[in-house]
Amino acid sequence: MLFLAACGGTRYEEEKEKSSPIPFQVSSPSAAFSSFITLSVDTGDHCLIVRFGLGDPKKLHFPVSAAYKDTLTATAFEFQFLEGGKPLLLDRATVYTSENGGKWSYYGKEIFSELRFATDTVDIRRTASLSVNVPYYAFQKIKRGSRELEVRISQRTFCSSSERAVSKRDSATGDTITMMRKFYAQVPMFSATAKFKLNIPSVYQTTLIGQGIVLRNDSGFSPAGMDNTIWKSSYPDIYWSIYFPKGIYYAKTDFEKSTDRYSSIDTFQLYHYTASDIIGFGVWDHDNLSRDDYLGDWEGSLKKLVTVRQANLGFGNVKWFGIRAVPVGIINK
């Protein structure tokens, strides 16, 4: 067994791959797509990056809710990846979307089965750009090397940009009831297909098996009373997460309520790029009323973890974190 301890998590800077545009061809664009969206396709930091530049919304004819005269300006864009006209399959991946050049959402979008997902709903009157970042490991089910792929981009529904107050008289009581709601209309406006070649790297698979967690309970830290509310005081609701690539959310477990030790045995399939990739683990206290509380994190090489039957880690306020890493090897030869 291997025991590794750290005061908090280790931090370092990895050299990132520079963003580089790749040629693409657009086919079957809708009229609104051609006039309103400027598309670009890039690679960088082991990701495929699809970007939208959004034009002048005054040129668009948005649907209007007939009953409440609400102009519906919010929508989401859907992406489906294919090879040879067939949907790309996968076991799991986490993709990230952002708008107006902002940061990605913390947890990203976990997808399973098919490489297909949608952006968050955005008000396109107030959105200048959108981007989606798809990690290379999401292409885990197709052979490595240069591959000709396509992405189908579509949109189906518009909705209110924010909730509206709607008043209705209750016939039974005579009272006026006010509710907050959004209005929807199925109006497809944007669609196109982009074809491009992408050089897919080797994708490795490693099975990660969490063995449990025990928190510290000493003069420096006590888990008792961490979750304080006006009703009660209790132990933390513990869960743990995986980060890959560096600092990027990959997956997380469910939480166990009010405990100083997490006892579930959790199994995840990690898809990555080399046998010595750096991964991270984080331990958290789930909170329904505020942000989750940080309990500790660890970063290190997969190579160290796979050389022992079980690694026993200690970091932050975590006394013991047991993890097994079982290499499967390259899966897309």
Would you report the number of β strands?
32
Q: Specify the overall morphology.
A: flat
Q: How many domains would you count in the coordinates? A: 2
Structural class call reads mainly beta
The percent range for helix content is: under 10%
What are the salient characteristics of this protein?
333 residues; mainly beta; Immunoglobulin-like; 2 domains; six-stranded mixed sheet; six-stranded antiparallel sheet; 3% helix; 53% strand; flat; disordered N terminus
Describe this structure in words.
The chain has 2 helices and 32 strands. The N terminus is likely disordered. Helix content is 3%, strand content 53%. The chain has 333 residues and is mainly beta. The strands form 8 sheets. Strands 1, 22, 27, 28, 31 and 32 form a 6-stranded mixed β-sheet that branches. Strands 2-4-5-15-11-12 form a 6-stranded antiparallel β-sheet. Strands 3, 9, 10, 13, 16 and 21 form a 6-stranded antiparallel β-sheet that branches. It folds into 2 domains: 181 residues, no CATH class; 128 residues, Sandwich (Immunoglobulin-like).
Break the fold down into its secondary structure elements and pairings.
Blueprint: E1 2-6, E2 20-21, E3 24-27, H1 31-36, E4 37-44, E5 47-54, E6 64-65, E7 70-71, E8 74-75, E9 78-83, E10 86-87, E11 89-99, E12 109-114, E13 116-118, E14 122-123, E15 129-135, E16 145-154, E17 157-159, E18 164-169, E19 176-181, E20 184-186, E21 191-200, E22 204-215, E23 227-228, E24 233-234, E25 238-243, E26 249-252, E27 261-262, E28 266-272, E29 278-285, E30 293-301, H2 302-306, E31 311-315, E32 318-330
Parallel strand pairs: 1-31
Antiparallel strand pairs: 2-4, 3-21, 4-5, 5-15, 6-7, 8-14, 8-17, 9-10, 9-13, 9-16, 11-12, 11-15, 16-21, 17-20, 18-19, 22-27, 22-28, 22-32, 23-24, 25-26, 25-29, 29-30, 31-32
